[in-house]
Amino acid sequence: MRQRAINLMNNREKGEKKTPRTGEMEMYQEYEQLLDDLVFLRKEAQEILAEEAKAEALSIGGKTKQKKNRSRMRRGLLVWK
Questions:
Q1: From CA 62, how far away is CA 27, in angstroms rounded?
Q2: How far is 10 from 27, CA to CA, in rounded Å?
């Protein structure tokens, strides 16, 4: 059963669509739906990871700017208005 799913994924990547044997149509449709769900979830996970990385990079960048400003203020180079 797992090998059948792997074969379906390989066929899908190659752009081939093989008709399943008689009695396997429901299983084939279920695998097809599961593959669609897997592709969707992987894309969604990648987007979430990218957003988290971007947010983390922005927060780190902001902290360093704040630290620089504090240092400048202590040395008298920066005056708050």
A1: 52
A2: 16
